[in-house]
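so i finally got all the pieces together for this one. its two components total, 428 residues if u count the protein bits. some of the lines might not be protein, just check the labels. i wanna see the whole assembly predicted at once instead of chain by chain like last time, that was a mess tbh
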Amino acid sequence: MEDRKTVVLVIPSDIVARGLKGIIEDAMAYRVEEVFHDLSKPVEARLRTLDPDVVLIDPSVFDFKARKEGRDRLAEICDSIVIALDGPDLTDEALRRYDGYVSIYDSGEAVIRKLDSAFGSRQSDPSPEGGELSAREKEILVCVATGMLNKEIADKLNLSIYTVITHRKNITRKTGIKTVAGLTVYALLNGLIDISSVQ
Amino acid sequence: MKEMFTPDMRLSEMIDMDYTLVQVVSRMGIDLRHTPLKVSDACALAGIDPATFILISGVYSFPEYIPTPAEVSSVNVPDILRYLRGSHAYYTGIALRDLESSFDLLVEPCEETRKKVILKFFIDYKIELEKHFEREDKQVFPYVESLLSGARPAGYTIEDFEEHHESVDEKMEDMKNIVMKYLPEECSGEMKMWVLLSIFRLRDDLRRHTYVEDNILVPVVKRLEDDGR
């Protein structure tokens, strides 16, 4: 049972949260790790630590204006698959940014099916520690080492911010180095960048 | 686990069980010449609470040991601060300086640019850590002391202080990986090993130190804040 996928719920309504928790835990493939009712700073910090496989979120936790960018904010916190809970104020455009969505009118099986298919659509890269960096990863590493932010890298290389984050995770897994300062040293020692490009 | 330590045993017995406790002993201001005495007597001479000394030693020696809420709530806060300040003084005055001179020797044979890059990483880490300690010494600990004296300073809570530990720990891990796997061939294997041992020692020490801050100091101070409300 240990390989159940972990799910975190961020749902203001306790009734809905408990209902979803019940449905998800009935399916043997998932375990609800924690339930939050908002996305405050402490919750963000906790999410970062938990780094769950799935976050199921009601986008109404974001301010109305910030709702469209809500998905991006989560991407900065963790690299989980994010499923939205569909609601009245949600535009199709905002919904498309998520990895999937469920509605409170879905049957239990439909909810699980949607979780499963969100997993299927995201291809994973099980690169081992110590593996060689790919050309794309090197390119992204150079950007990181010269101080660019995820958003800037995404724009420059014409990638989505999630792809950039996935690459960064793989770079860290392969090199064992997490911080920007450490990655800069790695890039310099491996001749990927020149000292003059980091002033 | 921690029950192995009692106020009635001799301090020297504790140190024989785990020699790294000499660091706790000296940070708490206990004279090393008093180690033949019973723990309770050595603590009395140093003016510290034996239970608090044993609690910190337990955390220090047994990483899997988690103090009970009752143990945490009965600690002597000034003694905790004494330990934390003593640790800071040790890190900045001895451990980081030693590590810096070892780093200098380690990268000595490297080409100039590479040498600079590696040393800069270490120095930046060192400065970040020192700033972190300074903030605690100058703001957090005095804040706790004023709470203890019954004042209720406005505009600051212990929560503001909790967020900062992660990044220094991550940099430490990066430093370990860089030294272990990515240094130029010119660096001697012996020096690498020497520096790695210092890094591991400092890392383990810092983790236990952080544990005392996050899981003993912070909950106790939160309670003080709540009482003052």
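Residues 76-228 of chain B form one domain.
Chain B has nine helices and no strands.
anyway lmk what u think
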